[in-house]
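The instructor's notes for this session suggest beginning with a concrete chain rather than abstract definitions. Hand out the sequence below and ask the class to guess, before any prediction is shown, which regions might be ordered.
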Amino acid sequence: PAQKSWACLHSSTARPAGKPVHSRVINGSSTAPSETPMSKTPVRVAVTGAAGQIGYALLFRIASGEMLGKDQPVILQLLEIPDEKAQNALKGVIMELEDCAFPLLAGIEAHSDPLTAFKDTDYALLVGARPRGPGMERADLLAANAQIFTVQGKALNAVASRNVKVLVVGNPANTNAYIAMKSAPDLPAKNFTAMLRLDHNR
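After discussion, reveal the predicted structure:
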């Protein structure tokens, strides 16, 4: 699709075709070591809901250096629900990222378990959330997402870097951020942020 071609074609940091691909890890198994020398230690960026529309839009920008700078290598730790369709979609996104051959992309991991997806992560973008379905009251939506963000908060507390910075995107972002923060008592509360600009502007 045109949108997917755009992601690589409009990146000034994609490597020429034929260059080696960085490491790829699928559910904990590395398939190809990085062959590109990097002056900085790669940082680990976890993204939940990575095969969704928002996650897809973010990943190529992170890999190209738009998030952390043009000299900062990254390892993407991608989380999707343990559903065959979602996991297959995630594999497709990973193949596109590999095709782009971003010089800063030091590794890619695909996960269905937050405890492995958040291992040693330096940044966590909590994008995935339960959408409001037909007939759902707001209370139902809050309850469904409370369960998701409680699990993810506990996982961050258990395995993430002690200085991890967490951005909650999934709506209702403020409530979800609070739940994740309260579920991670060993992490600094100041490191949790809810993306509320859209709600504020509305």
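Then share the key points. The chain has seven helices and eight strands. The longest strand covers residues 105-111.
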